């Protein structure tokens, strides 16, 4: 039997799912990140987590894995040398240090482009370039960088051994033109006019998510018992993987990922991009249609609000316990903007936006109600904007991620969204990546 393996790198942990060609699950494994590591330790932490989730898969399944796809947090980026060894600390998806290059980026990129966000992959790459140009000491300016990769690209490299390859989901926020499938000239040529060096030589080659990149290396095959012709595919981002897992295929339907962050994606006939609000469109790729997307778009955005803020104040057990004491029909008048630090990406693309978490009532149920209600307002404002800007009207919202199991929250969200809010059969991004891996046989 052929198995298809999906591996999801989220903020709080890593999960794997192995499925057969009918989509039935045969194995699941998980590795939770229990404490914060210094940024310099992240690559080795990710590598160890990758090995740990693979080792938990029964050998009998590993030996029949036909293909593997990995998703990672979108816009988490790295610079590596020719051996694939990171030459400096990775920059995480929600890191807004790119704010220092935004003015110069505005001079190069088209108005309102997706990259015009302090957290975009391109802003981070230019921040590195700026460090190099100015020779700023202590910034981690990497003199020996050769390859610019996203988290998912690098993890896939650990399996297939080829450097410099990304996919058009991860590459969207790098400025890759996902309609014409090429890097635009403002990116390949324009940068050199404003910064001292050109970035063209270090940009990854971009493939379609789910397309075969190459077999696992002999070393990986031997170590884990994968067949030597087991294929590693182009990957995707964590919230697109969650979208794919839901099985949504009808324009007007959407998936909200309530993980550490809040990400929304609406399947739309029309494309919408508007950097004022951090709204962008991914090219839709359906593994169920052999990687074709029917010209549809995944329109949406990702906010720094979400489960990470909830986890800062409550354990998962408390979230469950207190949520059950909330009456979802009753509106909380607490008006928060729940963030752990300054800056949001969507629906307020504002690197200086301040968290708003006051007043804080003594009653934890009341406080949690205010948090859930406020995150629901941000979600609903996001969907409202997508439609105001021309996306296909919203008909139904599926929920994925750790917050999907909170039915009280779903009821609160439904009050704002005014469409059915449902939990799909499959809510895990690893399942979506496993479906993506199946593209190689469709
Ligand atoms: N009952 C609950 N209600 C709301 N949120 C929850 C609940 N249980 C867990 N969470 C949130 O889910 C998040 C983890 O979701 P997950 O999808 O695993 O995140 P990620 O992929 O970003 O690591 C945590 O931040 C946690 O606060
Ligand atoms: O906060 C996140 C961590 O990855 C979001 O899931 C992500 O930013 C969404 O990005 P994309 O729309 O490119 O999948």
UniProtKB/TrEMBL annotation:
Catalytic activity: D-ribulose + ATP = D-ribulose 5-phosphate + ADP + H(+)
Cofactors, names only: a divalent metal cation
InterPro entries hit by this protein: ATPase_NBD, Carb_kinase_FGGY, FGGY_C, FGGY_N
E.C. number: 2.7.1.47
Carbohydrate kinase FGGY C-terminal domain residues: 281-438
GO annotations of cellular component type: cytosol
A molecular-function term among this protein's GO annotations: D-ribulokinase activity
Matches recorded under Pfam families: FGGY_C (PF02782), FGGY_N (PF00370)
UniProt record, GO biological process: xylulose metabolic process
Superkingdom of origin: Bacteria
Ranges where the Carbohydrate kinase FGGY N-terminal domain occurs: 4-244
PANTHER family (alphabetical): D-RIBULOSE KINASE, SUGAR KINASE
UniProt-recorded name of the protein: D-ribulose kinase
Species for this entry: Tychonema bourrellyi FEM_GT703
